[in-house]
Structure formats: structure tokens, C-alpha cells
Amino acid sequence: MAISPVRQHHMMLPAIGPEAMEPVREIVRVLLRMWRKSDLEFAIELGVTELLTNVVKHAPGDCELLVRETPDGILVGVTDFEDRLPDVKEPDDEAEGGRGLFLLSCLTDELQTQPLLRGKQVWFRISCPAGEEGEQ
Fold first, then answer.
1. Each residue's pLDDT tens digit, 56-99
2. Which of 4, 62, 81, 88 has the fewest CB atoms inside 10 Å of its own CB, making it the most exposed?
3. Does pLDDT of 133 surpass 60?
4. DSSP secondary structure letters along the chain
5. Which carries the bigger pLDDT value, residue 6 or residue 32?
6. What's the CA gap between 61 and 80, in Å, rounded?
7. Separation in Å, CA 109 to CA 93, 103, 124
8. What confidence category does residue 130 fall into, taking pLDDT thresholds of 50, 70 and 90?
9. 30 vs 108: CA distance, rounded Å
10. Who contacts 117 (Cβ-Cβ below 8 Å, separation ≥6)?
11. What is the set of domains in the chain, with CATH numbers?
């Protein structure tokens, strides 16, 4: 049995701002189509936008985006250089914000935050629907 190589794309995003969101989403869409995982496009784009928006709002500066194909789906990680970890919790009904990561945790198979020596990585994993890997 042949082991397929890991396909991934890593981007350095210096001083990311809101104007970078659409071009980054377009790159992610192209990757998903090339990897025959376009059925995950909506959820992955939403997740990428949420993670990068959090960088813009809470950890301005450089960040890194990793999009990796897994045997059963896609893993996305965003690394920034702010040490403060995000709080993923169900927001109060009266709260005006703070819903993004909670909603992302409901949409994904896994959402994790990993502290690093300098900064953190927030990542999520989404699986393809059963029987649909690579059928695009």
C-alpha cells in the first residue's frame, strides 16, 4: 500500500489586515479544489476568516497560516505571536461579541489552542463527509 505524501500550504502573513482576507480565502479555495476537498470549502473559509480576524483584532502583527490535507479532511492552523490564549466558551445572550470561536467549535470536528514559546497556534480540523474523500 502506497502512502500518499502530505499536501500542505504554509503562508507567512506579515502585519495582516482586513484587506488580506479575500485573497487568502481565494488561495484556500484553490487548494481545496486541487486536493479534491471542495465540499469543505464553506466551513474551511469561515474558519480561516475567523482565525485571521482574531489575529487582526487581538494580536496585530505577523502571523502564519497552515492548511494541511489529512487522510480524512483538512487541518488549518494560525500562529500568532501574542501569548494570551483565546477563551472558547458559549457567550452570554447579552454579549455583543465573542461568538466566533464558539461557533467555529460547533462547526468543526476539533478546535484547539496550543501555547508556544512565543505566541500560540489555534487550529481546527474538519473531516470530509463519510465516503466523500477525494470524489470531487
1. 999 988 999 999 999 999 999 999 999 999 887 777 767 666 67
2. 4
3. no
4. -PPPPP-EEEEEETT--GGGHHHHHHHHHHHHHHTT-GGGHHHHHHHHHHHHHHHHHHS-S-EEEEEEEETTEEEEEEEES--PPP---PPPTT-SS--HHHHHHHHSSEEEEEE-SSSEEEEEEEEPPTT-TT--
5. 32
6. 8
7. 24, 12, 7
8. low
9. 20
10. none
11. 8-127 (3.30.565.10)
Q: C-alpha 117: how far from its chain's center?
A: 21
Tens-place pLDDT, residues 28-44: 999 999 999 999 999 99
- Rg (C-alpha) for the chain, rounded Å, is 15
Q: Angle at Cα 111 formed by Cα 23 and Cα 21, nearest 5°? A: 10
Amino acid present at 121: Q
Whether the CB-CB separation of 46 and 32 falls below 8 Å is answered with no
Q: What is this structure's pTM?
A: 0.87
Closest C-alpha to 76, from 106, 49, 103: 49
Q: How high is the pLDDT of residue 135?
A: 47
